[in-house]
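User: I'm curious whether this sequence folds into something compact or stays loose and floppy. Could you predict its structure so I can see for myself?
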Amino acid sequence: MCYHFLANKLENELHRALLAALAVLAAFSSGIAAQTYPQRQIQFVVPTSAGGGTDTMARVMAQKLTEAWGQHVIVDNRPGASGAIGVGLVAKAPSDGHTLLIASAGHVVFTPSLVKVAFDPLRDFAPVTMLTSGPLIVVVHPTVPANSIPQLIALAKARPGTLNYGSSGTGTSTHIGAELFKSVTQTDLVHIPFKGQAPATTALLGGQIDLSFNTPPPTLPHVRTGRMRALAVTSLKRSSIAPELPTVAESGVPGFEVSVWYGMLAPAGTPPEVVTRLYQEIVRIIGLPEVQQRFAYDGVEPVGNTPVQFAAYIKSELAKWAAVIRRAKIRADG
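Assistant: Here's the prediction. I'll summarize afterward.
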């Protein structure tokens, strides 16, 4: 019995020593990886076609990262299936930091609740940072007799099912954000989907729809000429883009928030040191005056939260929007 006890003890000690050695080796390897990263061209996968917010964001980041690190950063557009094709590609990519995802809230948070996907947004990615965030603007046609969110709610409740709102497409932030508004205000608004923001804006200008939750760049010029009436922004805090506009939350709908954000994610298993190096460099880039000027033009503001903060935010957003999508019975087009 003494022999077996000593043998088992020795085996356990050897096992612990081996695990400790492997941990040291892993830490050493990760440190080397961070020091030598990047070793080759970096690929930004964008789950949309060229043009538009996500693609623009990726190209700004790619140019600045190329300048900083001397390694070429390319943008690889992989549209389709509400973004699931591009997102799924990065989920299966090598976890070495050379294939990264630049995605919007919709791709990471909405898509898994809208279509069947081959990835898990929490399990399959190592979030790096949220690049930017911006509000939508609640706008109405000038003929709609509402000058504030409380007046809009009262009008919708007095005329249930008669006011309609346009969106840039089923399953987009301009659609799902409006559905959250309907849910929390208990109003009945009719959804009219369009194929993009431009035709939805044209329809609002022409009076074919009553209101919409629009992104700022195509909206504010028409607000300033009086062809649309802006009621509020959907962020929790007032936006520097239109500080004169109240938030929906301060207009009588406490806690209401819809943010259109863009973020960078790496495949799960990417060494923490590589994620940290990426995070630090991206935060430096989004702080550059010329980059912030471009963000302001696009109606968004820099964020740069930590990988841990970004991961927690994605988790909370998944739960929030899955519930909205489920209640509204939304399914993606085609």
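Summary: Residues 2-36 form the longest helix (35 residues). Confidence is low (pLDDT under 50) at residues 24-30.
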